[in-house]
Specification:
The structure is a homodimer.
Chain A: E1 2-8, H1 11-21, E2 26-32, H2 43-58, E3 62-71, E4 78-79, H3 82-88, H4 90-97, E5 105-115, E6 120-131, E7 146-148, H5 155-165, H6 168-184
Parallel strand pairs in A: 1-2, 1-3
Antiparallel strand pairs in A: 3-4, 3-5, 5-6, 6-7
Helix pairs in contact in A: 1-6
Chain lengths: ~190, ~190
């Protein structure tokens, strides 16, 4: 079975990835990895650059993942800076910014970059939805305020198993895992 | 007279720098330069890294400048991501985030990084103040909402000459220019 490193500081992401990838013939291992990401409005650029730095240090086939929440009426804010925004103004801050807005459409985007020293590719997935009008108090990150299309409850309220059945990260993971299994079975 | 390149995309900054540096024996020249900055909560790290990349490309003594607006009651937000935040939620968004907050203290920080291939140094300056409760509609960046300590009007309303008499960027420039004149007179 092909072993891939997931290089990240975020164990919540790893739990989701692990749970989903058991459907594929891949072994995934968590490795705590921190680097200065580049500032860019393009998640692909951020993930590709991070995967290069990670491969230089780790030297084994690996993936990194970058997520952004893009809110339509805030011109895409917080976008690629989701992590910093969460640490400073938090979900409460986002709801304050939307308090007078009727358009609450948002899109979660996930980009996975794979690097094995030879291949350096990205795989993306997205989930459209709405920002709730209050914080659901369950889940991590923006999950407590994101209601995916076709649902009446937030990612946080759905619980991990339901969330990963069709989340933005799952879509990106499917693209990656399908490519990976095809590539290594050659 | 020693010639220094100011590598940036921001001509408003250049106007301020040019106006202030005429008090020193330095010639400053604008060169449009864009690169992917790193994501960091530390302005020094961002400016140092940017100055290295700029020197590799330009090969002449140069400065870059990075500014952040750190708002106390928003845990330092928008901090180093001031430029992205301005493009997305703008000054209106910041006022929305502060609408229920009595503490409107904020600090503008400027970091200049100098690189000539041999020396790679930073010089910083700051200005404390308050965020106004409405947008003054004059000035660029966050100047229309920042009231420096000891003033009753915003940076924007002060006009460029008054603003640069004691702005965060001016403090950083003074540190840089004093060092530079001393260094090159050796």
């Amino acid at each position: 079975m092909r072993k891939i490193i997931f290089a990240s500081t975020n164990e919540n992401k790893f739990k989701e990835i692990l749970l989903h990838l058991r459907n594929f013939d891949l072994e995934i291992e968590f490795l705590r990895f921190k680097t200065n990401e580049i500032q860019s409005e393009n998640l692909e650029d951020i993930a590709l650059e991070k995967s290069k730095v990670a491969f230089e240090r780790i030297g084994q086939p690996l993936i990194v993942e970058d997520t952004g929440l893009f809110i339509d009426s805030l011109n895409g804010f917080p976008g690629p800076y989701s992590s910093y925004v969460l640490q400073t103004i938090g979900n409460k801050g986002l709801l304050d910014l939307l308090s007078n807005k009727s358009n609450r459409l948002a899109c979660f985007r996930s980009v996975i970059a794979y690097n094995d020293g030879k291949n350096n590719l990205t795989f993306s997935g997205e989930a459209r939805g709405n920002i709730s009008d209050h914080i659901s108090e369950v889940g991590w990150g923006y999950d407590p305020i994101f209601i995916p299309e076709g649902s009446s409850i937030t990612y946080g309220q759905q619980g991990i198993t339901n969330k990963i059945s069709k989340s933005h990260r799952t879509h990106a993971l499917n693209h990656f895992a399908e490519w990976c299994c095809r590539y290594y079975s050659k």
